[in-house]
Amino acid sequence: MSDAATFTRISTAAIRVMIKAEVASLDVYLPYARNGEPVLYRGFDSQLSAPDFQRLQDHGVDHVFVRSGDLRHCQQAIESKLGKILGDPLIAPEDKALLLNAAGTVAAHSVVASGVSPESISRSAVIVDHVISCVLTNPSVTAHILHMAGHEQSTASHMQIVSTLGVMLGAAVFGDDQEALKALGFAGMLHDLGKLSIPCAVLNKTEPLTREESALLQQHPIESIRLIGNDPTVCAEARRIILQHHERVDGRGYPVGLCGGDLLAGSRVLAVVDAFHAMVGPRPYRTDLSIGAANHAMALQAKRQFDPDILSQWLQVCERYRIDEERRTAEATAEPGQTISRYEGATRWRCQQVSVKRPPRRKCPPGTVVRCIYAGRLINATVTPNDFGSPVQDVSRGGMCINTAHPMYRGEIVHLRIPGPSGASWIGSMVAWCRQHEARRYCVGLQFIRRLAESEVSRCSAVRPMGGMDQEEAGVLEENDLALVDSR
Fold first, then answer.
1. Over pLDDT 70: what percentage of the chain?
2. How many CB atoms lie within 10 A of CB 244?
3. Over the stretch 156-213, which tens digit does the pLDDT of each residue have?
């Protein structure tokens, strides 16, 4: 069906602001069907006057319809004139916020709909620059975006608002450090990109997730980085923030279980605003919370899920923008069940390292080391050396567990030189899981793929997409290969 034959629902407030900004080249239709289509209310090319917004409000009409193609042209016009609009003193801060949020949501949707491309990243970069400018020079504009945080909860709008809130909190934490704020803005715009690879049935499930579904969901930060690929606009700092945005200061987060000082300051900022926006919007498995109730619930998670100093600064940001007037009454009236959002619930999303049955594993004697060569890794997101030796904790015919000084991520490909009774063998493997078990030490589960010829060792491989391999390929090692294991 063509854009000319499809309609998009839009708020009357958005139409009013577009008319004021002189970008409303569209016909407006009332939400009353006649012969299966909305009824024309005001035609752009006719001599009819602009919509009577007061009359619409008096009749309880807060949304109208426009043709999808017309709206797309208007959105492009908003993006091209956004700088001028944000600098126009005759346009109210609330209206500027609506247009900035709309333009950002469209930019985020372009990433969601068409994937990461130079064009979609460029559009996102322009929006991030405008957000940073507003936060630093005209904070009343971004304060209104916080008011709108719970109005829409699509993936694109979530990414846009988290980006904006991240820059707002980032300005309190980092001051006017442009590089830090840009990394936060980009991380917010792209942090949930990996959820596009998760079935909607899992994302919208109202019942508790199964072990396998939880493991799949916990891969989405890694999948986001894989989908971003090698785009040079997305800096290494933004990539690491995305990887860590579901880690917790108490070490119970995912995908690795980092804690405390191992977490980037930017990821601790993004964790706060990401959880906040999830709580103030409706979810299939719970109702939405007010701003005050959400902040109260988050305060209960200080030193557990959230960095207490950064969380304190977030609450101060809310107070400074005068948007937390509900806090005192919400704290007094909130029911016990409201205080912890299922969005962060450790029981529902706790990391399950193993989702398949492993072959029997054998402990390795102290000093057993394998050589590891990265063949496929997340680009500009990890600091693990390309070639390193690693102690082996245990091994089976289908995989092994090694100890490393740096985190590794599911789907990355590692070539292993494994000692054996008749000489060393090269085995291709995939990172299946990784968890921090003490300060800057990690346990990494490797799943064997196949034996490698010497000529294949230096060959690069692509990071496996979400889900990795369907099942463990037990039997890559023969029984006599396990002679490196000393069971005495």
1. 83
2. 27
3. 888 999 999 999 999 999 999 999 999 999 999 999 999 888 988 888 888 888 998 9
- Between helix 291-299 and helix 308-320 the angle, nearest 10°, is 160
Per-residue H/E/C for the chain: CCHHHCEEEEEHHHHHHHHHCCCCCCCEEEEEEECCEEEEEECCCCCCCCCCHHHHHHCCCCEEEEEHHHHHHHHHHHHHCHHHHHCCCCCCHHHHHHHHHHHHHHHHHHHHHHCCCHHHHHHHHHHHHHHHHHHHHCHHHHHHHHHCCCCCCCHHHHHHHHHHHHHHHHHHHHCCCHHHHHHHHHHHHHCCHHHHHCCHHHHCCCCCCCHHHHHHHCCHHHHHHHHHCCCCCCCHHHHHHHHHCCCCCCCCCCCCCCCHHHCCHHHHHHHHHHHHHHHHCCECCECCCCHHHHHHHHHCCECCCECHHHHHHHHHHHHHCCCCCCHHHHHHHCCHHHCCCCCCCHHHHCCCCCCCCCCCCEECCCCCEEEEEEEECCCCCCCCCCEEEEEEEEECCCEEEEEECCCCCCCCEEEEEECCCCCCEEEEEEEEEEEEEECCEEEEEEEEEEEECHHHCCCCCCCCCCCCCCCCCCCCCCHHHHHHCCCC
- Following DSSP, what letter does each residue of 190-211 receive, concatenated? HTTGGGGGS-HHHHT--SPPPH
Point out which residues pair with 446 in neighbouring strands. Answer: 400, 431
For 102-140, the pLDDT digits (tens) are 888 888 888 888 778 888 888 899 999 999 999 999 888
**Model confidence, pTM:** 0.81
Do residues 184 and 299 lie in contact, with contact meaning Cβ atoms separated by under 8 Å? no
User: For 22, phi and psi rounded to 5 degrees?
Assistant: 60, 45
Return the structure tokens found at 420: 């054996």
**48: how many CB neighbours lie within 10 A of its CB?**
13
Cβ atoms within 10 Å of 200's Cβ, excluding its own: 8
Rounded to whole angstroms, the Cα distance separating 108 from 121 reads: 9
- Please state the rounded mean pLDDT for residues 41-50: 65
Reading the block at residue 62, the tokens are: 């807060």
User: pLDDT tens, 340-381?
Assistant: 333 333 323 333 333 344 557 788 888 889 999 999 999 999
Bond into 255 cis (ω within 30): yes
